[in-house]
Design a protein that fits this description.
heterodimer; A: alpha/beta; Rossmann fold; seven-stranded mixed β-sheet; 18 strands; 38% helix; globular; B: alpha/beta; Pyruvate-ferredoxin Oxidoreductase, domain 3; six-stranded mixed β-sheet; 6 strands; 22% strand
Chain lengths: 537, 192
């Protein structure tokens, strides 16, 4: 078998290819993006950047029901968007295997929160696998497809930043590329979730999880490594590697499946160890469940629920000596991320700052408009949030508000990127027109989904594989959503006078408006050249 | 190489070729028959921020991140960044840093007290301009630095060659390989 150095994300894509996946969908989001970017390089796999995670999962469910092995990828907060189809897909099950590769971001290296998505697996009653390195990422992806079909359920493969973006040695196996989608077959009691059918399916879901709960005790990925019986550690994912580093003598129960938990195996581990502790990042997910089984165990009394762990955090918790580090007494100025030199977003944030407007912001590179010297953003919650929040501010301030320093009628604007607007901003725009809002929404269109590394979207005229695509027309869209009086304007980001004049005119117009500020991302072309010859692993 | 795992931390600022250098180094370890892992953070940090890459290799590597004080080599492409990550270095760490200084945004001047503080960790200072002149292009300084530390790490030339071949565009292999050899030679000169 050939050995290769792969990131966790590359390994997940490789595992999916080896498992015979023929459909892959997703929405970009750090640290999950490279999974689909790699899957698209393999022959015989249909891939798409979907408009958002909900649609990605819906397309995935459809493909799985038509019998294709299907991989759906997104970051942790993306699963919030896709939660609606997730919970009911658990009821209808699959035909071809359906695996959701979902990457959490402990420490929020590039995220707005550090939610622990293990809760989703428990809440939606679907199995969740958690690899500890790239090789396991490949193996577990294949196992996830087998489990999905054997237990008739979607399966979540959970990664974290340190798995997705770390590289390790992976053994390549021969891919099984003989699978063909077996086709959709009508099964309304299983696929049409009216209450009468869903009540029966819920019973099946509970039976499935009970069966899984027994079977996981014998799973080869739930492993007891007996060593010194004085201290036993229950752990999973990246934390397993930290435990092996910090406490090489400890006995370990390594969980490859974190939902459902192997109660019998856990019982056996407790009976073999004098004392058992749980090492997990973020929430006390394992701890609460193990405690509910009636065991006495320590976990979050030793570790923080905030940020990442590392070997030193474990050494400290267990009183193991750490290596002394060289001291440094100098205060270093930080290097906060900032908008690139020449970035088209710079103009508008400078103007918004000068005008003293309230700015509801959104998710993307342009969130950096909050940083000095621009300091031109007042809220950032989630994808598409700028559009909704602005309406709430307008409603609460009775439509007019006080006049801003700039002397314009409306005192607040929303800014959103092109990809984010397509993702979940458009429904907010329809809401604004429907409910009679007079807000100004500004789309910062740089022709790509830049923050996550230049993925095309419905406004960029291109698909994931570089194929030419239909590009959504702002003017027609604005008009169709209900924007009147020619209040859709498109201006050049590098013409500051036009940008400022348009913002003033549209704010003063007294009716709903959409301003599109266009300027291509400065690193887009460079990246495009670099990736031209990307080959599959 | 003995049984102990080897830890290298490469640090600098976005755009200096840190990720490429760490890809080459990790691949060279793999081609030398070792287990290897590396870890870095993509995303926000690419927008002009600090960049770091942990590389670990040996018989069996568990954690992809280095513990504080345990870097065998701290290789820094920017002076101030050396100090930002100095807590990964201990008494036995080889600290190598270039003369490059990149002013962070939003500060008037590069901090003045860097020199004195740097001296405390007894680094090998590599003159960036001199190196760039010798190898013909500033772009390959990162690979020259790999050549410099390669003398300490000790993989054979074939492993390095293959690792560089796999990670750089085919047209620039010769330039990169020359940069590597130059770095390797400089290490020997320093240690004579």
């Amino acid at each position: 078998m050939e050995k290769r150095l792969l990131s966790g994300n590359e390994a997940i894509a490789r595992g999916a290819f080896e498992a015979g996946v023929t459909v892959g969908t997703g929405y970009p989001g750090t640290p999950s993006t490279e999974i689909l970017e790699n899957l698209t390089t393999y022959e015989g796999v249909y891939t798409e950047w979907s408009v958002n995670e909900k649609v990605a999962l819906e397309v995935g469910i459809g493909a799985a029901l038509a019998g294709a092995r299907t991989l759906v990828t997104m970051k942790h907060v993306g699963l919030n968007v896709a939660a609606d189809p997730l919970f009911t897909s658990s009821y209808i099950g699959v035909k071809g295997g359906l695996v959701i590769a979902n990457a959490d971001d402990p420490n929020m290296h590039s995220s707005q929160n550090e939610q622990d998505n293990r809760h989703y697996a428990y809440a939606a009653k679907v199995p969740m696998l958690e690899p500890a390195d790239s090789e396991e990422a490949r193996q577990f992806t294949k196992l996830a497809f087998e489990m999905s079909e054997a237990y008739d359920t979607p399966v979540i493969l959970r990664s974290t930043t340190r798995i997705s973006h770390a590289k390790g040695v992976v053994l390549l196996e021969n891919p099984d590329r003989s699978r063909k989608a077996s086709g959709f077959e009508r099964n309304i009691k299983k696929y049409v979730m009216i209450p009468g059918h869903a009540r029966l399916r819920h019973i099946e879901v509970e039976k499935r999880m009970e069966r899984l709960g027994k079977d996981v005790n014998a799973s080869p990925v739930n492993v007891i490594e007996m060593n010194d019986p004085a201290v036993g550690i229950i752990t999973s994912g990246i934390c397993y590697t930290y435990v092996k580093e910090a406490l090489p003598e400890a006995s370990v129960l390594k969980l490859g499946i974190v939902n459902p938990l192997p109660e019998e195996l856990i019982r056996r581990f407790f009976s073999s160890c004098k004392k058992v502790c749980i090492v997990e990042e973020l929430d006390p997910y394992l701890e609460l469940r193990v405690k509910a089984m009636g065991f006495k165990v320590e976990g979050k009394s030793l570790f923080s629920s905030v940020g990442e762990l590392d070997p030193d955090a474990i050494r400290k918790a267990f009183g193991v000596k750490t290596t002394p580090a060289l001291p440094s007494s100098v205060q270093l100025p930080p290097r906060p991320p900032s908008l690139c030199p020449g970035c088209p977003h710079r103009t508008v944030f400078k103007i918004l700052n000068q005008m003293g407007l309230i700015v509801t912001g959104d998710i993307g590179c342009y969130t950096l408009g909050v940083m000095p010297p621009f300091s031109a953003m007042d809220t950032c919650v989630e994808m598409g949030g700028s559009i909704g929040l602005l309406q709430g501010i307008e409603v609460a301030m009775d439509g007019s508000g006080s006049k801003s320093a700039a002397g314009v009628k409306m005192t607040a604007v929303g800014v959103i990127g092109d990809s984010t607007f397509a993702h979940s901003g458009i429904s907010g725009l329809i809401n604004a027109a429907y409910n009679g809002r007079k807000s100004l929404f500004i789309v910062l269109d740089n022709g790509t989904t830049a923050m996550t590394g230049m993925q095309p979207n419905p406004f960029s005229g291109e698909r994931i594989n570089g194929q030419e695509a239909f590009s959504l027309d702002y003017e027609k869209l604005g008009e169709a959503c209900g924007i009147k009086n020619g209040n859709v304007r498109i201006v050049d980001a590098y013409k500051p006078k036009d940008v400022e004049e348009s913002i003033r005119a549209l704010l003063d117009s007294g009716s709903l408006a959409l301003l599109v500020i266009k300027g291509p991302c400065v690193i887009y072309k460079r990246k495009k050249m670099k990736n031209k010859d990307k080959k599959p692993v | 190489m003995n049984e102990k795992n080897y830890n290298i931390l490469i640090v600098g600022v976005g755009g200096q070729g840190i990720i490429l250098a760490s890809d080459i180094l990790t691949a060279a370890a793999l081609f030398s028959g070792l287990d290897a892992k590396k870890s870095e953070i993509h995303g926000m940090s690419q927008r002009g921020g600090s960049v770091f890459s942990h590389i670990r290799f040996g018989k069996k590597i568990h954690s992809p991140v280095i513990s504080r004080g345990e870097a065998d080599i701290l290789l820094s492409l920017e002076q101030m960044e050396t100090l930002r990550w100095i807590n990964y270095a201990g008494e036995k760490t080889l600290v190598v840093c270039t003369t490059t200084r990149i002013k962070p945004p939003n500060v008037e001047e590069y901090p003045g007290d860097i020199d004195g503080e740097l001296k405390k960790c007894r680094p090998f200072i590599i003159d960036t301009d001199k190196t760039a002149e010798a190898i013909g292009n500033k772009k390959f300084v990162n690979v020259a630095l790999l050549g410099f530390v390669s003398a300490r790490i000790g993989f054979n030339d074939d492993s390095w060659k293959k690792a560089i071949q796999e990670n750089v565009p085919s047209g620039s292999f010769d330039d990169n390989w020359n940069a590597f050899l130059y770095g390797k030679k400089s290490f020997k000169e320093v240690h004579q």
